[in-house]
Fold this sequence. Notes:
Elements: H1 3-18, H2 48-53, H3 57-68, H4 70-77, H5 81-98, H6 107-125, H7 133-145, H8 149-161, H9 171-192, H10 198-218, H11 220-225, H12 233-238, H13 243-247, H14 253-275, H15 291-303, H16 320-330
Helix pairs in contact: 1-16, 3-4, 3-5, 3-7, 4-5, 5-7, 5-9, 6-7, 6-8, 8-9, 9-10, 10-14, 10-15, 14-15
Amino acid sequence: MAAPALALGWGLLRLSSGCCFLGHVPRGLSARGRGLPAPVVLGRSATASSRTEAPGSDLYCMELLRKRDYEGYLCCLLLPEEARSSAFALRAFNVELAQVKDSISQKTIGQMRMQFWKKAVEDIYSGNPPHQPVAIELWKAVKRHDLTKRWLMKIIDEREKNLDDKAYRNIQELETYAENTQSSLLYLMLEVLGIRDLHADHAASHIGKAQGIVTCLRATPYHISRRKVFLPMDICMLHGVSQEDFLRKNQDKNVRDVIYDVASQGHLHLKHARSFQKSVPVKAFPAFLQTVALEDYLEKIQRVDFDVFHPRLQQKNTLLALHLYIRSWKKRY
């Protein structure tokens, strides 16, 4: 391997030993540390000079991702250099939206923040983004790669619908949420890489659904600590499990059976995504590196017999960065 590639691999490994974060989960699960600089939100749009210079907006996105979505941060580092800053912007945009629900006390406040981002996206496509670091970087990414506006709006719309603290009625409802958020993000990542391919889109759809399902499982202990259960109600009813069973952290077999069914659906989506591997352009593979973290969690939960509360599931994988690097080097997902 070339020296620069080895240097990147070891650099990622050193990063993973110092910080870890469960990707795309509520803010309360994030690593604690030095606070992020507050985003600047003014009642006016950025001027042409401030948009192009915007000191620190790129670093803000990177730091936001490192603190709130460490797995996504590592995946971005392994992208081609010309795509990296745009990928950071997209994932930072996703984090900004994802943490709204967990940081509000009233739904109306959340709706106001979503409205800000809807207008921000409209202004970005009009070439007049608001003076907010993530919005500025997103504007640059849109200009650079001609990103599809529809995917950005889908993410916002679906996050806004999800502001209601209600359990998913069935697994299909969870998959729809994941498709409109995680899969839409992956479609945009493919565009950043210059990929517009039907097979890649099919793979992205399944990987996004797997991501949504795994995120739901990973966040369950945190949600339970706030006396909330979001697992699909149809699967809970099938096994005769009530929300109270989860709130009491019941370890009965039927509770584990619920987790097994949900996890199995996530595994199935990963399997489907990989069935397209021979047809997907190799250039698209870097967009799908998150499958490494998804596979890691699904294997761990199987080893603890689908006990979603098991302490091992909350431990960081110190070798994740190395595993990501190896998968990237092998050009597989």
